[in-house]
Amino acid sequence: MEITDFKSIARNYETIFFDAFGVLKNHQGLLPGIENTFAYLKENDIDYYILTNDASRGPKELAQGYQDAGLMDITKSKVISSGMLAREYLKMKVKSGTVAYLGTKESAHYIETVGLKTISIADLDMDEADDVSVLVFLDDEGFDWNHHINKTVNLLRRHNIPTIVSNTDRYYPVNRKEVAVAVGGIADMVENIVRKTFIRFGKPDAQMFIYAHQHTISRGATTDKNKILMVGDTLSTDILGGNKFGLDTVLVLTGNTLAERAESRIRSTGIIPTFVCESAIID
Amino acid sequence: MEITDFKSIARNYETIFFDAFGVLKNHQGLLPGIENTFAYLKENDIDYYILTNDASRGPKELAQGYQDAGLMDITKSKVISSGMLAREYLKMKVKSGTVAYLGTKESAHYIETVGLKTISIADLDMDEADDVSVLVFLDDEGFDWNHHINKTVNLLRRHNIPTIVSNTDRYYPVNRKEVAVAVGGIADMVENIVRKTFIRFGKPDAQMFIYAHQHTISRGATTDKNKILMVGDTLSTDILGGNKFGLDTVLVLTGNTLAERAESRIRSTGIIPTFVCESAIID
Amino acid sequence: MEITDFKSIARNYETIFFDAFGVLKNHQGLLPGIENTFAYLKENDIDYYILTNDASRGPKELAQGYQDAGLMDITKSKVISSGMLAREYLKMKVKSGTVAYLGTKESAHYIETVGLKTISIADLDMDEADDVSVLVFLDDEGFDWNHHINKTVNLLRRHNIPTIVSNTDRYYPVNRKEVAVAVGGIADMVENIVRKTFIRFGKPDAQMFIYAHQHTISRGATTDKNKILMVGDTLSTDILGGNKFGLDTVLVLTGNTLAERAESRIRSTGIIPTFVCESAIID
Amino acid sequence: MEITDFKSIARNYETIFFDAFGVLKNHQGLLPGIENTFAYLKENDIDYYILTNDASRGPKELAQGYQDAGLMDITKSKVISSGMLAREYLKMKVKSGTVAYLGTKESAHYIETVGLKTISIADLDMDEADDVSVLVFLDDEGFDWNHHINKTVNLLRRHNIPTIVSNTDRYYPVNRKEVAVAVGGIADMVENIVRKTFIRFGKPDAQMFIYAHQHTISRGATTDKNKILMVGDTLSTDILGGNKFGLDTVLVLTGNTLAERAESRIRSTGIIPTFVCESAIID
After folding, report:
1. B236 contact A CB<8A
2. How far is D49 from chain B, CA to nearest CA, in Å?
3. Is the confidence at residue A175, as pLDDT, over 90?
4. Are residues C32 and C108 in the same domain?
5. What range defines the domain where residue A161 resides?
6. How sure is the predictor about D200, in pLDDT bands with cuts at 50, 70 and 90?
7. Fewer beta carbons within 10 angstroms: which end of chain A, N or C?
């Protein structure tokens, strides 16, 4: 497995899509030196977007996190989250009624900004659920799993309502040694129990990349996919999704895919990045 | 779909295996009239066993439930539960160390009766988990899902320990209108996240039927499978398992399989009971 | 379940996406009267596209089929097939080497039109397979399943090459009573055996709808998804995909979803069309 | 990972269950030196059985293969195959009608020895299929995949008949470099297409081990599972099945599990053998 220097790759593209966790940051905050990468991109007029499977907050709040850490150029227009796709779906398809959700009040607030009425599963009166027109899995926090997962199962058994999963990840890292079950993992369990088909948003799904691509075009950048690079730490989401959308892809070894296992993981999955780099840090 | 009278079938067998929930009882208690069935079996010298996917209590406690409701002949030797198989596995394979579990203290107590040391995931110190030699999913109650499912995921990521699921059901009815997620459903989610292979006990697995069959033989009854009838309300567990073990099977319409959907469910699953009866009640 | 007249729906949209088989035609040819629908669309200046999971031929050949049956307005620019997406992927990602394929010579010919070199698995010398840079499942015909599926499995075990499935369907109807296994079904089997992750093109994947949408835009039509209607006979591909992309959807009862089962299928899958119509025929 | 000498383990057991392929033999025939193992077992009065997922021939023919290679003590009573379980099922459950099969004439011949009438799918007249009472997947050879897999799919769509898979393996080795799709792999594909539930026989299913255990008991050997050892080369069948049945297990490195990958495979699957040995050969 050949390891390539990230800079020697990056300079050949007009736009770069970055995954967030494991690429730009980890549980301790931004990767030391990643600010140099953004300085290099600016200097060389290379555009970029951050594509993240996250529906816990809106892009404004996600961008604020980068700014608080010193990356002032990362504004909300640079962040594309699976939550944005879920919100767009709801805006498009929900003409009336209430959006029931599993998640925090903060995650629901972002949905409400397009004028939708929301109610937490925790607060829902099961005998007055006729007004619920859609269910959304937003976040793994903000509710009591013992009671509210069961309540969700019973809601879906009694009412035939479309169900949206706004983050397809099954788990996420919380520190160097531990992970936590993500809302995508909870949604999988509920789907297996009620045996219905949920609608999922997030990488590796093409929709995430198309949304980013359209963003790029709308801001005057290239429409040529050969000029866009996808950088990620996870084969099954970032690399598979980027490949399928027709982009060149870089696997970095600063996150989910450990250096010593990268080669065997590529072989065993058959998901082949165009390049492998130690990290996305440009010195 | 031909509906047959249960009595006209039952009298042709020497032993009958019954599923419990949906066949003998429901959320309100014993099915009215089911006591007549047991009187008929006694009178006609037909032996019987109750095969249940349940690891929340031992067979003694399960039997006590029937006795409290007036069926005094149902003693612990008549009850065969998936928990018994899990306990037998642990007795056979665990030579030392501690059995970590998800479930109630009561469910763990039954495991302890063969001399094993247990610890609830809730009480486990993650930094002293080296002594854990096996993990068991016993019951959906007795722990905080938000915290202890995540703790379980991290235990399995850090330690390579065999994992047992002592009830394969994904959900169970709690009243006429509601179900609850069973420990089998939670185990499926954890297995999908940690991507390891768990060992499962319960119908439709052959082991459950073999255990019952050996019980039958050890008590002097027939070894001839043609003389044993399996009665259940669920195609995918009771009927599939009974068929595979070579038994004649009866689907009753007092539980999971509704009368109006039975025919289409049989056709769509390809799981075909030998007979279909309204209920297991003999007037 | 309310049945709505198709005309009363169609007139509210600027563009209509049609599935082909089960909507416009069946094993006997075009549905009698479907020509009136296209006359109505022309008269009322409603644009349309045909979205089909088919990689057996190029859009030109697919369009020719409609013209031969008398629908002269259906030119190749009106047809969007999963094969087009697969071809675009190959054009974008394959810089050198040979494309190995399972399918007919005709299906490969369409791939070759972008300048790629192809070789049928049937003709491949396994000892000189180093030049193969990608494998494509194109069609269920054109090769000997006994020999060439095994040859494909061994190719993928020995060489780590990306694999493309250009039609996600598992089976397709061949006449009123019979179906045949589609190349998507064969690809699923091979994927389960080699345990790698293939890249799939076709409904319900968003990419199919985006491609159609971009086509629409490039021809000067609306960019507003509220003005596009998706019409299909299959919940799990046409309706799920259309819903997810944010379109209004019509389920027609002239194909895979039988009238007497439509309501229970919608309930059991949780895939809910905006409207249900007898057919897409406008008298 | 500790490697233990096989002899030092074997001598502590009264009965040993061996997997065949990858343990006793490979594509070139018996493993050189394996005859010493059988001499040692005989000398030390340790009983043994061969448990194999194979339904291509009866145990007599399978035993003959060992005898032809010089192991004269391996008679048909020493061989327990998944085909025996399938045959027992058919004998028990099929009271009338014809058994349709996919496989060779030889594989069907073994089924016929219990008095059943069989017909190859190749020879079946689809318009006179009402007499078919069960379908069995016996072998991957003996039929034309292109035509007869499609014929099988249509048979199962039109008739609701129970379906048996007599070998759960998805593929098998044919020489040092190549594998072939096994009948279990073909059955998985058909099951996914017709969406029915098939009945499977073979390791890791408990039934295989129980059958072997009962054989052991009926021949006067121990009933004590602590005195039985399972030896295999495949974690997901031999070791998982042996563990679940409560036996001590040995993973050998002469077959599917390569020495250099054994430790990581054990960790990633969570299927943990009691011992790991280079081979089952006793010098």
Report:
1. no
2. 20
3. no
4. no
5. 84-200
6. very high
7. C
